[in-house]
Amino acid sequence: MTNIGISRFASASAFALALAGASALSPMLASPTHAQFGFGRIVYDPSNYAQNVLTAARTLEQINNQITSLQNEAQMLINQARNLANLPHSSLQQLQQSVQRTQQLLGEAQNIAFEVGQIDQAFQSQYGNVSLSATDQQLVAGARSRWENTVGGLQDAMRVQAGVVGNIDGNRTEMSTLVGQSQNAAGALQATQAGNQLLALQSQQLSDLVALISVNGRADALTEAERATAAEQGRIQRERFLTPGAGYQPGNARMFNSGN
Q1: pLDDT per position as a tens digit, 97-125
Q2: What gap in Å lies between CA 43 and CA 33, rounded to an integer?
Q3: How far apart are CA 40 and CA 42, in angstroms?
Q4: Cα separation of 143 and 156, whole Å?
Q5: H helix and E strand count, the chain
Q6: 12-36 burial by CB neighbour count: b if 16+ within 10 A, else e?
């Protein structure tokens, strides 16, 4: 019980003792109308004494009820204090660091970043229709650039995969800690905060999963785009090879020097 509850309990007890003492003395201090004098003695009045005892008992019962009510109130205040206590553990920093690591890996995407404008520009310049007027050297340079994009996309996917796998151990430790905090919560607020942090941990894991799916899809898209463009470039080069040339053109030839 708190200091306030103990103080109220002591005051109520003192009041009860004082009232009981007054009730006990009341027969002795009864008014003359309830006493009869005979041979110099005060005559005992049983009905008056019983009434006083009954009144004292009822008063004591009320005091006991008040003491019980004060005890219940003190316990309620203690429970409220427990329910308002904050969770001593926070996983926010750990989760933010995991998200930042994944974002950093996504931001380091090679050649073609995860940005709509840059993707559109790259596809228009490198994966669009192959120019019929392009030289062989330009065709080779374009094919190499597309190959580098594909290899870079595959490497990016593997780097993000490694980062996500690296977050698993930290997430496992954090999940174990949060579950322990939730089970040992002193009040409703601590249990709620532990539950909220577990939901935040799940959100971080989902963000890792989204990042992993994104980089894998990007690598697959680059591979298919390179394959499609390579097929178009091969068609153009085949047409160039099969197109008839000018052929042999006769001309004058001088076999011997017929100088003057």
Answers
A1: 999 999 999 999 888 888 888 889 888 88
A2: 11
A3: 7
A4: 20
A5: 6, 2
A6: beeebeebbeebeebbeebeeeeee
Distance of alpha carbon 17 from the chain centroid: 58
Six token digits for residue 79 = 């429970």
Q: Is 42 helix (H, G, I), strand (E, B) or coil?
A: strand
Buried-state track 149-166, b at ≥16 Cβ within 10 A, e below 16: bbbbbbebbebbbebbee
Rounded Cα–Cα distance for residues 67 and 61 (Å): 10
Distance CA 135, CA 97 (A): 49
Asked whether the predicted pLDDT for residue 178 surpasses 60, the reply is: yes
Closest listed residue to residue 98, CA positions, set 214, 182, 177, 202: 202
How far is 160 from 133, CA to CA, in rounded Å?
A: 40
**Collapsed DSSP state (helix, strand, coil) of residue 38:** strand
Length of the chain: 260
